[in-house]
Fold this sequence. Notes:
Distance between the termini: 13 Å
Number of strands: 3
Structural class: mainly alpha
Strand content: under 5%
Radius of gyration: 18 Å
Strand order of the largest sheet: 1-3-2
Largest sheet: 3 strands, antiparallel
Number of helices: 10
Helix content: 55-70%
Order of helices and strands: HHEHHEEHHHHHH
Amino acid sequence: MAEPAEDRAGDLADDRALLGRTSTAERVADILRTRVAEGRFPPGTRLSEDGIGGALGISRNTLREAFRLLTHERILVHELNRGVFVRVLDAGDVADIYRTRRLVECAVVRGLGRPPFALDGLAAAVAEGEGAARAGDWNGVSTANIHFHRALVALAGSARTDELMRGVLAELRLALHLVDDPRALHEPFLARNREILGALRAGERGTAERLLARYLDDSRDRVADACARAAGARG
């Protein structure tokens, strides 16, 4: 397991304002889930109660409840006498994540109704990814890709679906951290994101769904292979 992440916890103080006056474990869990999804807490990181609790200005009990919620979501894991860690995924986890993504994301596209669709969020994520690629920031490309798929699911206008996919995509980010060549993984999907956006702009839901289904299958295979190689290296 990686070393404690006190140095990663300090900038959580910037998120203290998100808690407002009604600090709850659910709000804390949402902040930590977002940080995992953005890659700030990589797989294997031990989460320091003192560091995170101090940065957010919350009680130990509130933080432990947030940890419990994220453990239930399979984002964190508690190890007896060692502490709480960000999970390390295996190929079986990846297959299950992509099965869920295919069910949800393709259904969202299929159920969009009549065009035009509200695509500003998708367009912004495509531009974000292309800008990060030009800068050689492949972690930024990965983050932009997560934003793309969150914006895609948001087209359903369902708070429940958004909440489900926040957890699924945060868990996916755990697998992406195991990829040894992020450019090789993410670069081909930049053009495919733009292709899906183009199909939706043209009102072609069926085309967009077919593109998305193939996209998710290809991504699953690449990520699962990376996880298998990482597991072999750990062994």
